[in-house]
Amino acid sequence: MEAYAQFAQTLLGAAKFCLLPLSVAILVRCVRSMLSERYEPELWAYLRLGRETLPVCHWENIIGRSRGADLRVDRAGIGRVHAVLTRSDRGLWRVYDVFEQGGVWVNGVKVGESGAPLAHGDVLNLAGTNTRFLDISPEKRGSLANARTSAGHTVPPFLTLIYLTAFQLLLLLEHALSASREHLPAIALGFCTLILLQWGCYNAMRLINRSGFEVETLAFYLSSLGMSVAASSTPEDLYKQILLTVASVVLFLLFGWWLRNLKRVSVMRIPMALLALALLAVNVALGGTSYGAKNWLEFGGFSFQPSELVKAAYIYVGAATMDRLYRRRNLFGFIGFSAVCVIALALIGDFGTALIFFVSFLVISFMRSGSIATVFLAVSGAGLAGFLAVSARPYIAQRFASWGHVWEDVYDTGYQQTRAMSAAASGGLFGKGAGAGWLKDIFAANTDMVFAVVCEELGLLVALCMVLAMLTLALFAVRSARHGRSAYYAIAACAAMSMLLVQLALNVFGSLDILPFTGVTFPFVSRGGSSLLSCWLMMAFIKGADNRRDASFAVRPADRDSGRRPEEDEGEVRRT
After folding, report:
1. Mean pLDDT value across the chain
2. CATH class for the region spanning 45-142
3. Amino acid 418: pLDDT
4. CA 206 to CA 550: how far, in whole Å?
5. What is the full DSSP assignment across 384-430?
6. Which residues are paired to 109 by β-bridges?
7. Can you tell me the distance from the alpha carbon of 412 to that of 486, in angstroms, rounded to the nearest whole number?
8. Which pLDDT score is estimated for 401?
9. What are the extents of the domains in the chain?
């Protein structure tokens, strides 16, 4: 018996030290593939301006004199933002006047508020400056798309998934050495389900000729850490966690397929907004109160937070297409929708989520309008609302009062955070081993203080890899948004990552007393099905913004994109 215990300890020690190099290998390979590959633009049309030919690389393009314009036309009389050129899923082009002086004309006819169609060879007049629009045929577009480098060409995802599978098996081994015998089947099933899901997704992507799998790899890496936290803290509920993990991945795939058709997405914006408001209304009316917040609903033996599902709906509604960006009534409509959402969250006492929504509102508003004044007005209003909230809700004021002073009262206001910091420090660089910590027994440790749980059990270095995985997704979303084919995907990806990053910051810094403790989850890792569903839905937005060849199943490949066939005039087109 003593020999077996010594062998188990040796095995556990080896597993602990192997988790870090595997985490680093997964991160490095994803970073190399996602952030170091050279960007190759998609070409959809050209705009001929005298001897100069401007390539049209997006489905929504700002035309103007501004340096930030997609199609810069630096001529007298043209405004900084003069017109907007858009393309539909069917390949039909349309131009919109944003009502600068001089106007916009197509073949001598002035463009009205509803815009005007634009065909191959049409003359587009911008405040007296004539340009000619030249579309690209589907055949030519296909040949241009095939010349681009496929995603994953530099770093094939197959080996990265091998590393991830080894990481998951080591976590399973650690839990097998520390968990009770009655919970071993559920723990084994949880990690085996994750392994089967990731390899199933990878092979499904290969069947449809997709080679980019980095976003999913990082999501599965974080979900593996989340499965470990659930196995440590609540192994008796692990079957629910497994079911919700499967449902999350399935919803990710279905939602990604839905986003392929932007016309369908646009049609469902209003129903989606109404659904979000209905969920919040039900939450306000029927939600159960827990520690000052009324943010849980019970249904069929499951408890869930409607606000988590509303996050994805909010981004879905807010990321409008470019033809709506410069219409003030559309921006005001979105401001009204946002205000109702935040007020509902304030009524149920979920101020952490309200802050997350507000930051996403700022991102969407700025990307839609480009107006610093709008953002400044929103921040001023939020400051007043925050002051009123602190005045009206004593427990919020108490959290602010204890911020930075948790060690002064370790048995009351500082109870959770002092334990979290002590446990995180006791884990050292490599941790005590999965399931071997004590912080998991503290209330809400597996949700609100999950960063400290990972530090204690798996070590500070693995916990930092967890944070770096989220930062990698954020940098990739911003990089993709700059070059995305559609403004919808660009805005949605940045808004989704803003939500996830604010959650990360509030969870990590709140548990370490660097920021006030707000009680929000760490994306993918905190235990909870509602949060996991929300995070996987947001990954679909990030996949939609991925503009690399054969990278995203959430967009149609350019070489098979549907569209009408224009009259070709490629002999006239010259790139400058």
Report:
1. 82
2. mainly beta
3. 87
4. 10
5. HHHHHHHHH-HHHHHHHHHTT-GGG-TTTTTHHHHHHHHHHHHHTTT
6. 106
7. 51
8. 57
9. 45-142, 157-295+306-555
